[in-house]
Structures are given as C-alpha cells and as structure tokens.
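We were asked to recover a plausible sequence for a given structure. The inputs and outputs are reproduced exactly as logged, with field labels preserved.

PROBLEM: sequence recovery
POSITIONS: 321
GIVEN STRUCTURE:
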C-alpha cells in the first residue's frame, strides 16, 4: 500500500433507510413510504468517503463479514477509491445492518443488530501497520464499537503518536453506560475532538458549550469542536473560543451521516480558499493551520485542487453539523 494521508478506523456497516416515518408506522399493517434505500453507513466509512472525494488518499480500518452486506461495503470502497487493504473480512460474523427510521424533519433513529460486526469488532481487528507513512488518524467513533474500550483506545492512539500522526476522533452516546473517566486517558491523546452537543453534554454532565469544552480540555484534548446542529459549531482551545454558524436557508431532509461529513470536511480544509473570516480564525488552532491536513510534514501548504472542491469544503465545514 502506498502512503495515505488519512487512516480512518472504526465502523463500516450497511444502512437501510426508511423515509419518512412516524410513530403511526407501528399501528399499521402496511405503511407505504416515499423512499427505502440501502447505503453504506458507519462513521469510519462515511468519513473515508468524504475525505477521498475531497482529494486525499485514505485507508479504512474496520471489520465486516463474508456476506452480501460486507461485499456491498467493499464495492463502495472500490468505487470511492478508498484503500480497503485494512478492512478485515471475518466469515464467522454477520456484517452489521442498521435500519434507519427517518422522520419528516430529517431526524432519525437506528435499529441495530447487537450480534453484528459493529458490536464484535475489537482493537486487534485494526491493522495498525497501515499507520506507517500516514499523516492523520481519525477514530470514528468512540463508543461505537463497544469492545474497543478506553484501554484499547489508549493503545491505538499511542501507536499513532509513535508514528507522528495527528489524531482526531468523534463520539456517539455511550452504549454500555461508559463514563468520562473510562475514556479520560484516551482523550488526552486527541489533537481534535468532534462530539455533538447532546453527546458531549451527556458524557460530561455539563450544559453550556463552554463548560462542555472545558471538561474535554481538562482531559488533555487540544482542540474541541462541538457540532451544534442547525446552530453550526463551537470551537474552543486553551487560547480562544468562537462559534461558526451553519449556512442559512438550508432545509434538513436527512441528517444521517451529517456529523461524519462535517468531520471529513473539517480535517481536509484548506484555509487559503476560505472566504469566511471566522473560519480563517481556526488557523490559530493546532499550531497555525485550519484543518489537520492543511500543512504537510515538510512545512508546505497542502495543495488545493480547484475552486469547485474548495467551495465543497466550505459547504461541508459550515453546513453539516
């Protein structure tokens, strides 16, 4: 495998999305919908897809079964130019399939298979040799693979630091009642952390954005970026704090994968192409560059690839929370 820019480790599953649904679905014998579709899902493969589309080489570390859903994920990796050499195929498990019930306002609830690959993946299933030569590890997401606990995350992140990588992570709500103390040491390795407000409030026990961010900064996180839904995002470091509003006039149709799109856009961002002053202020994060891939190891700015891609990055960074 040639060197990649980003290694995404975590969840890769298949989603079956039903839209739009309401509570009445459980009272009906038959319930016609406008759309039922099958897509790839899971934080790691969603981020990988966006990062690849934005022009960076990305490798996926995850696990699937030797079944139709697993083949669907592998085919998607080939179509999206994602390096899947680190995607483990285990014939003894089923690839996780999530059924997403999407409401009319775009919000969704997932029905998951507790015995699928998502719940069976362990740290040993991630081929950490793929970190060699990469620039950034994105772990997507903390708590999503329940068997990858805080201790396992410390091992993964320590190996990434040994290779000199920038480390980013997202999170979901704890699945097994985990607390902040369970992942405190692991959070101390993070250069960028991307929780959404509800998840972060639940984990920290704090209400205000400042207090939530301070709780993560106290764990050693360098840059806290809180996704705040229709309100945009909130950024805080030891040196500064500010908010970036979402793009106005956008109607949410389906929020599935929105946070993953946000993270993928953020970590590939090139500030030389950004017109918004508040986005440029993020250059002060992490020693002077906006997205973690903005500067190469030799000090040269990341090479842009056209104004269309730059506009896409701006839209993803500001509009997907």
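RECOVERED SEQUENCE:
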């Amino acid at each position: 495998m040639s060197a990649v820019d980003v290694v995404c480790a975590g969840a890769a599953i298949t989603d079956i999305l039903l839209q739009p649904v309401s509570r009445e679905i459980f009272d009906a014998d038959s319930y016609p919908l406008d759309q039922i579709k099958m897509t790839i899902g899971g934080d790691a493969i969603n981020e990988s897809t966006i990062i690849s589309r934005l022009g960076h080489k990305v490798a996926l570390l995850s696990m699937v079964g030797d079944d139709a859903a697993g083949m669907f994920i592998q085919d998607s990796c080939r179509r999206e130019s994602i390096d899947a050499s680190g995607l483990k195929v285990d014939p003894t498990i089923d690839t996780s399939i999530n059924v997403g019930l999407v409401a009319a306002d775009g919000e969704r609830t997932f029905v998951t298979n507790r015995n699928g690959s998502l719940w069976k993946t362990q740290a040993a299933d991630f081929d950490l040799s793929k970190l060699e030569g990469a620039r950034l590890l994105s772990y997507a997401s903390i708590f999503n693979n329940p068997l990858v606990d805080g201790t396992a995350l410390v091992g993964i992140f320590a190996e990434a630091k040994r290779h000199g990588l920038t480390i980013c992570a997202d999170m979901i709500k704890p699945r097994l009642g985990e607390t902040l103390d369970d992942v405190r040491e692991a959070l101390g390795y993070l250069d960028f952390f991307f929780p959404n407000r509800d998840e972060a409030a639940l984990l920290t026990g704090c209400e205000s954005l400042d207090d939530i961010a301070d709780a993560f900064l106290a764990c050693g996180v360098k840059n806290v970026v809180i996704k705040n839904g229709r309100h945009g995002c909130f950024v805080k470091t030891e040196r500064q704090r500010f908010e970036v509003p979402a793009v106005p006039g956008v109607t949410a149709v389906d929020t599935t994968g929105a946070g993953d799109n946000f993270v993928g856009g953020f970590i590939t961002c090139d500030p030389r192409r950004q017109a918004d002053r508040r986005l440029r202020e993020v250059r002060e994060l992490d020693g002077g560059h906006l997205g973690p891939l903005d500067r190469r190891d030799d000090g040269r700015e990341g090479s842009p690839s056209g104004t269309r891609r730059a506009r896409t990055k701006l839209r993803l960074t500001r509009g997907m929370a």
